[in-house]
Amino acid sequence: HVQLVESGGGAVKAGGSLTLSCEASGYTSVSYCMGWFRQAPGKEREGIAAINNDGVTYYADSVKGRFTISRDRAKNTLFLQMDSLQPEDTAMYYCARNPGYCTGVLQRWQYEGQGTQVTVS
């Protein structure tokens, strides 16, 4: 089965940067989309970024221009570079994967990791 393991979360001051990583394993589909979503306490999930096999990316307006999604296909690793972090970015960040092609950011995915906490003060 598909396993997604996030790392790289932590505490950072406003204006700082963090890079999240997600190691993926156990999948068989050739065509897939991967992405990130986040959830803060008491708030709904927010899809924030997605990337397709062809490299096409999507971002939520709340992170556009500050966050960058990328991947190392050889290492089956997904990344989220987060710059200019603000207190409102504080949340649990989750890596996720869907078979097929994404046409935008997603709130819910077929496969989701356990999350990594990001705290901005």
How would you sum up this structure, described in words?
The chain has 121 residues and is mainly β. The chain is built from no helices and 11 strands. The strands form 2 sheets. Strands 2, 4, 5, 6, 9, 10 and 11 form a 7-stranded mixed sheet that branches. It is globular.
Which short descriptors sum up this protein?
mainly beta; 4-stranded antiparallel beta sheet
SSE arrangement:
Blueprint: E1 3-7, E2 10-12, E3 18-25, E4 32-39, E5 46-52, E6 57-59, E7 67-72, E8 77-82, E9 91-99, E10 111-112, E11 116-120
Parallel strand pairs: 2-11
Antiparallel strand pairs: 1-3, 3-8, 4-5, 4-9, 5-6, 7-8, 9-10, 9-11
Brief summary:
By secondary structure, the chain is an all-beta fold. The protein has strands at residues 3-7, 10-12, 18-25, 32-39, 46-52, 57-59, 67-72, 77-82, 91-99, 111-112, 116-120.
Specify the biggest β-sheet: 7 strands, mixed
* Contiguous runs where pLDDT drops below 50 for at least 5 residues: none
Q: Specify the overall morphology.
A: globular
Question: What distance separates the N and C termini?
Answer: 37 Å
Structural class: mainly beta
The proportion of residues in beta strands is over 45%
- Would you list the SSEs in sequence order as H and E? EEEEEEEEEEE
Overall pLDDT score: 94
